[in-house]
Design goal:
The chain is of the alpha/beta class. It has 2 domains: 172 residues, Peroxisomal Thiolase, Chain A, domain 1 (3-Layer(aba) Sandwich), CATH 3.40.47.10; 149 residues, Peroxisomal Thiolase, Chain A, domain 1 (3-Layer(aba) Sandwich). Helices cover 34% and strands 23% of the residues. The radius of gyration is 19 Å and the shape is globular. The structure holds coenzyme A (COA). The site of coenzyme A (COA) has 21 residues, from helix 2, helix 6, helix 8 and strand 12.
Length: 329
C-alpha cells in the first residue's frame, strides 16, 4: 500500500468582535437573567459584530494570524475551505472574499455549509485534497456572524450564540502525525429541529416572513441536546478507532462549545477528565463553525498543546451535521 501523506496543522488563529454582550445586557433586551443563562448554558458573555463588520472581516483576520503562525505566504495557499452558514452574500462563497482580502491568489476557495460542524467538514475535505496531491497547503476557517440570524425576541435562542472566526493552516509534511482520524455524518431527517425555516429559495423573503421572523434561527433545544451528546460521542469513538488509540491517549479534548451541560454530558459519556477538557463557552457563547478552531488556537497559544500531544475535537449542528477529528501535534 502507498505510504499515507501526512497532513499537519502548522498554524492557528482566531478573531472575534471587540463588542461584548453580557448576560446582564441581554436581560435588558429579553425576559432573561444571568442566573438562568449561566446555570443552563455556562455562557457569561458573547462577542457581537457591529453593523459595519462582516463575516469575511473576522475570517480574514483569523486566516492572516494562522498564516503568520505557520510562517506561510499567501501565495503558498492552495485551498481555502470556509465552514459557515452566515456568509456575507447568498453567493458566491465568502471564502472568495477572504481569498481577496488575504491575497491568496493561487488558492481555490469555497464555503462548506454544515452549521456548527462546518470547520470539521472543512478539515475532512482539505485533508482529502492534500492527500490526493492537489496541493500542499490549505486554510480551513470556521467563521460566523450568527447575531444577524437571531430573533432577538426569542429568549430560548438569542442568549446562546456569538460571533467570531477560527482558522488553521493544514500542510503536507514528511513527519508522522498530523490528522490521524476524521469522521463526518449528517441526518437530513432532522432539518426541522434546528434551522432558519424560511427566507431561502423555497420560501423567499416576504413581509409576512420577516414579520414572523421565520428567516431567523429556530431550534428545538431539548431534542438537539439529546442528539448532540450521542452523536458526538459516536464520532469520537470512530476517530479513535481509526487511529487505534483510546481516550487514555488523548491529551486535550475540544468539544463544540454549545452548552456546558452538553459538554459535561459528553465528557462523562466518554470518561474524559476535566483537566483534559477545553471549555471557553463562558467568554464566546456558541460561535457555531468557529467554536472548535477558536478553542484550538487558544490552547496552542497558552501552551496547553505541546508537540506530540493528541488532540480530539468534535462538533454538532443543524442538518443534523456532526463529526470529530483527531490530531497529533
Ligand atoms: N431565560 C429565562 N428563561 C428561559 C430562557 C432564557 N433565556 N430560555 C428559555 N427559558 C424558559 C423556558 O421558557 C421554559 O419555561 P417554562 O418552564 O415556563 O415553559 C424554561 O426556561 C425551561 O426551558 P427548556 O427549553 O426546557 O430549558 P432547557 O433546560 O432545555 O435549556 C437550552 C434550554 C436551549 C439551553 C438547552 O435545551 C440547550 O442548550 N439545548 C441545546 C441547544 C444547542 O446547543 N444548540 C446548538 C447546537 S449546535
Amino acid at each position: 500500500m502507498d505510504k499515507q501523506i501526512n497532513v499537519h496543522i502548522t498554524g492557528t488563529g482566531h478573531a472575534v468582535p471587540e463588542n461584548i454582550l453580557t448576560n446582564d445586557d441581554l436581560s435588558r433586551i429579553v425576559d432573561t437573567n444571568d442566573e438562568w443563562i449561566t446555570t443552563r448554558t455556562g455562557i457569561k458573555q458573547r462577542h457581537i459584530a457591529e453593523p459595519h463588520q462582516k463575516n469575511s472581516d473576522f475570517a480574514s483576520a483569523a486566516c492572516l494570524q494562522a498564516m503568520a503562525d505557520a510562517n506561510c505566504a499567501p501565495e503558498e495557499i492552495d485551498f481555502i475551505f470556509m465552514g459557515t452558514v452566515t456568509g456575507d452574500l447568498i453567493f458566491p462563497s465568502t471564502a472568495c472574499r477572504v481569498q481577496e482580502n488575504i491575497g491568496a491568489v493561487n488558492a481555490t476557495a469555497m464555503d462548506l455549509s454544515a452549521a456548527c460542524a462546518g470547520w470539521i467538514f472543512g478539515i475532512s475535505v482539505a485533508t482529502a485534497c492534500l492527500r490526493m496531491g492537489q496541493g500542499r497547503k490549505a486554510l480551513v476557517v470556521g467563521s460566523e456572524v450568527l447575531s444577524r440570524m437571531m430573533n432577538w425576541e426569542d429568549r430560548s435562542t438569542c442568549v446562546l450564540f456569538g460571533d467570531g472566526a477560527g482558522a488553521v493552516v493544514l500542510e503536507v509534511k514528511d513527519e508522522e502525525g498530523g490528522v490521524l482520524g476524521i469522521a463526518t455524518h449528517t441526518d437530513g431527517r432532522r432539518i426541522e429541529m434546528l434551522n432558519c425555516p424560511k427566507g431561502g429559495t423555497a420560501d423567499p423573503v416576504t413581509p409576512e416572513i420577516l414579520a414572523a421572523k421565520e428567516n431567523k434561527i429556530h431550534m428545538k433545544g431539548n431534542d438537539v441536546f439529546k442528539y448532540a451528546v450521542r452523536s458526538m460521542a459516536g464520532a469520537c469513538r470512530e476517530v479513535l478507532d481509526q487511529a487505534q488509540l483510546t481516550l487514555d491517549d488523548i491529551d486535550l479534548f475540544i468539544p463544540h462549545q454549545a452548552n456546558t451541560r452538553i459538554i459535561s454530558a459528553l465528557a462523562s459519556r466518554l470518561n474524559v477528565s476535566e483537566d483534559k477538557l477545553l471549555v471557553n463557552i463562558q467568554e464566546y457563547g456558541n460561535t457555531s463553525a468557529a467554536s472548535v478552531p477558536i478553542g484550538l488556537n487558544e490552547a496552542r497559544r497558552s501552551g496547553r498543546i505541546k508537540p506530540g500531544d493528541h488532540v480530539l475535537v468534535a462538533a454538532f449542528g443543524g442538518g443534523f451535521a456532526w463529526g470529530a477529528a483527531l490530531f497529533r501535534f
